[in-house]
Every structure is written in C-alpha cells, then in structure tokens.
C-alpha cells in the first residue's frame, strides 16, 4: 500500500514538474518573440532615420542690429562715404595764383547724406515729407605747403515729398513705378559776400572777369579801397526738383528733372553745364552694390560741340550690414559745384556706410 502511494506521488510530481517546465518555456518563448519584435522595430526606425539630422538651435535674434539697419536704411539718401585716397588724373582747377602752391592731385573726399521723415501721411495722403541734407567735401589733407586746406565744399539741403504710386504696367512684367518725388532744393558752395567783391570802373563795368585774383582791401584813413576783387562764387540757387522711381528686383532707376531758376548771375553759363536733369541707376545683388549717375541728361545738346555732362560710377562690396569697401570713378564736368565748367577725371577708394 505504501508502495502504491509513493508511486502515485511520484507520478503526480512528474506531471506537475513537466507542466511547470512547459509553462516556463512558454513564457520564455513569448518573451523572446516580444524582444525580437522590438529589435526589428528599433532596427527599422534606425534605418528610416539614417539621414535625419536633429534641428540646430535657432540663431539668436539681434533685435538691435535689425533696428539699427532699418533706421539707417530709412535715413540713407545719396550715400555716406569716405575716400582717403582720391586721385585726379587731370590738373585740379585753381582760380588764384595757379603757379604758387598749386593744389595736389591726391586728396581726401567724403560725403555725408541723410534724410529724415518729418510728416507721414501729410495732408491725409499716403505720402511722406522728408528733410534731407547732403554735404560733399574735397580735403587737401596731404598738402602741407598749403596747410591742408578744405579745397571745396558743396551744400545741398532739400525738402522732399515722396508719394508711393506702385504702378505696375503689364502686371509688373516690366517693373514697378514705385514713387514720385516733389522737392525743393538749394545747392551752393558757401562762397560769397565779402569774399567776392568785384570792383567796377567809372563806367560801371567790372575791372576783371571772373575768376579774378584775391581781394585786396586797403584802408586809407578810414576809407577802404577795394582792388583786384573777384572770386568764383557759384550757387545753383533754389529750384524745384521732380523725380520718378522705377524698380524691378534689385534694379532701381531714378530720373530727375528741374526747371532752372536763376539766382546768381556771376556764372551765367552754369545752366549750360548743369542742364535740367540727371539719372541714377542702382543695382544690388548679394554683397555687391553698383551705382551709375548720369548728369545733364536734359539739355540743349545741339548748342554745344561736346557733351557738357558727366558720369559717376561707384561699386561697394559689403563687409557687414553697416560698412563696405567703396570705389568711385568720376569723369566729366562738375565734380564739385566750384568746378562746374572744368573737366576732370578722378578715381577714389575708401569705405561706404550702409552699403
């Protein structure tokens, strides 16, 4: 009886052990299959993301840079530049004692030009009224024998009304007539008054033709005797200016016209060289900025043996948003107002702001 009982216990233990081992094997097998599936999924994800690059951190926004650039763009007008090397291939005009301490052909030329909005939507229109100012200087900084004089200065204050028209003929295929400008302009070199005494004879005619020699004032017992008077006083006076702006991509063309308003008759042939208008072509692409200015495009060409105008070609390579390397070439009449009827051929290298 004991033997039968032990045999039954043995059989039951064997059956339970076999069931336990089968259950354990089943659990291990399921775990293995699950692990294998996860490995396959992970492998597929790795392959599908083989060319995936995690996003880089967004660059920090320099709000002050954007603000400064926007502000400079708004104020930029005819260009602010500095040319420490400005060489003239032609002799520099000198109206007094040209054989004594002549001007040097290398000088420092610089220009400061800006415009500031005064009234927006003036008179309930879309236009803006600007106050503009441009000053150009020719500085004989290397001329030590003459104590480095400021050879010539041009002053040009303006009041400009800019109206956006945004006229796109043919659906904009040939560009956009973006703006019209109506302004009032004054141009002079600041020379006049006591510097420009012109003595007259008893018949009322000037003793010397412009340009004369330096003024000599002698005082005899309280009475002033002015002799050898005369200087080259040049002013284009006050005049209205009308401009039309056309744009297409990075190309912009501005054509200006003005009816001549005589102001100073000391240079009656000024209009023969200044004409009634000019044009400016401006092209920007990447870091490159090209400029071409044509002077005296509206004039009586049939009256002259040769063209009395000029062109000014400029190129800027932008280094950063605020400054660029600048080169300029001028050829023609009137590099400065003082030289309105003098031909010159000049080139300069320097820097330009807000390229």
TrEMBL record:
<dbReference type="GO" id="GO:0004623">
    <property type="term" value="F:phospholipase A2 activity"/>
</dbReference>
<feature type="binding site" description="in dimeric form">
    <location>
        <position position="147"/>
    </location>
    <ligand>
        <name>Ca(2+)</name>
    </ligand>
</feature>
<keyword id="KW-0732">Signal</keyword>
<keyword id="KW-1134">Transmembrane beta strand</keyword>
<keyword id="KW-0378">Hydrolase</keyword>
<dbReference type="GO" id="GO:0046872">
    <property type="term" value="F:metal ion binding"/>
</dbReference>
<keyword id="KW-0479">Metal-binding</keyword>
<keyword id="KW-0443">Lipid metabolism</keyword>
<keyword id="KW-0812">Transmembrane</keyword>
<feature type="active site" description="Proton acceptor">
    <location>
        <position position="186"/>
    </location>
</feature>
<comment type="subunit">
    <text>Homodimer; dimerization is reversible, and the dimeric form is the active one.</text>
</comment>
<protein>
    <recommendedName>
        <fullName>Phosphatidylcholine 1-acylhydrolase</fullName>
        <ecNumber>3.1.1.32</ecNumber>
        <ecNumber>3.1.1.4</ecNumber>
    </recommendedName>
</protein>
<feature type="active site" description="Nucleophile">
    <location>
        <position position="188"/>
    </location>
</feature>
<dbReference type="GO" id="GO:0008970">
    <property type="term" value="F:phospholipase A1 activity"/>
</dbReference>
<keyword id="KW-0106">Calcium</keyword>
<keyword id="KW-0998">Cell outer membrane</keyword>
<dbReference type="Pfam" id="PF02253">
    <property type="entry name" value="PLA1"/>
</dbReference>
<dbReference type="GO" id="GO:0009279">
    <property type="term" value="C:cell outer membrane"/>
</dbReference>
<comment type="similarity">
    <text>Belongs to the phospholipase A1 family.</text>
</comment>
<keyword id="KW-0472">Membrane</keyword>
<dbReference type="InterPro" id="IPR003187">
    <property type="entry name" value="PLipase_A1"/>
</dbReference>
<dbReference type="GO" id="GO:0016042">
    <property type="term" value="P:lipid catabolic process"/>
</dbReference>
<dbReference type="InterPro" id="IPR036541">
    <property type="entry name" value="PLipase_A1_sf"/>
</dbReference>
<keyword id="KW-0442">Lipid degradation</keyword>
């Amino acid at each position: 009886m004991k033997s039968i009982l032990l045999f039954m216990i043995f059989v039951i233990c064997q059956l339970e052990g076999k069931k336990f081992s089968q259950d354990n094997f089943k659990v291990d097998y399921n775990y293995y299959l699950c692990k294998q599936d996860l490995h396959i999924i992970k492998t597929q994800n790795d392959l599908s993301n083989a060319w995936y690059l995690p996003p880089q951190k967004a660059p920090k926004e320099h709000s002050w840079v954007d603000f400064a650039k926007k502000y400079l763009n708004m104020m930029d007008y005819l260009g602010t530049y500095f040319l420490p090397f400005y060489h003239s291939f032609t002799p520099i005009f000198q109206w007094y004692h040209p054989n004594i301490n002549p001007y040097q052909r290398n000088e420092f030329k610089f220009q400061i030009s800006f415009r500031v909005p005064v009234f927006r939507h003036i008179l309930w229109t879309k236009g803006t009224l600007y106050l503009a100012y441009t000053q150009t200087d020719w500085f004989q900084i290397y001329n030590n024998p003459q104590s480095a004089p400021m050879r010539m200065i041009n002053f040009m204050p303006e009041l400009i009304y800019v109206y956006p028209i945004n006229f796109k003929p043919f659906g904009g295929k040939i560009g956009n007539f973006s703006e019209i400008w109506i302004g009032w302009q004054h141009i002079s070199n600041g020379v006049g008054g006591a510097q420009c005494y012109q003595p007259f004879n008893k018949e009322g005619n000037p003793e010397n033709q412009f340009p004369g020699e330096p003024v000599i004032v002698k005082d005899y017992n309280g009475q002033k005797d002015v002799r050898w008077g005369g200087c080259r006083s040049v002013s284009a006076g006050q005049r209205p200016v009308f401009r039309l702006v056309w744009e297409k991509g990075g190309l912009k063309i501005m054509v200006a016209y003005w009816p001549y308003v005589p102001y100073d008759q000391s240079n009656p042939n000024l209009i023969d060289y200044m004409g009634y208008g000019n044009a400016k072509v401006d092209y920007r692409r990447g870091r490159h900025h090209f400029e071409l200015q044509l002077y005296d495009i509206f004039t009586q060409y049939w009256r002259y043996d040769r063209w009395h105008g000029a062109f000014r070609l400029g190129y800027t390579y932008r280094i950063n948003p605020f400054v660029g390397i600048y080169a300029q070439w001028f050829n023609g009449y009137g590099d400065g107002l003082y030289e309105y009827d003098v031909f010159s051929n000049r080139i300069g290298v320097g820097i330009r702001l807000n390229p």
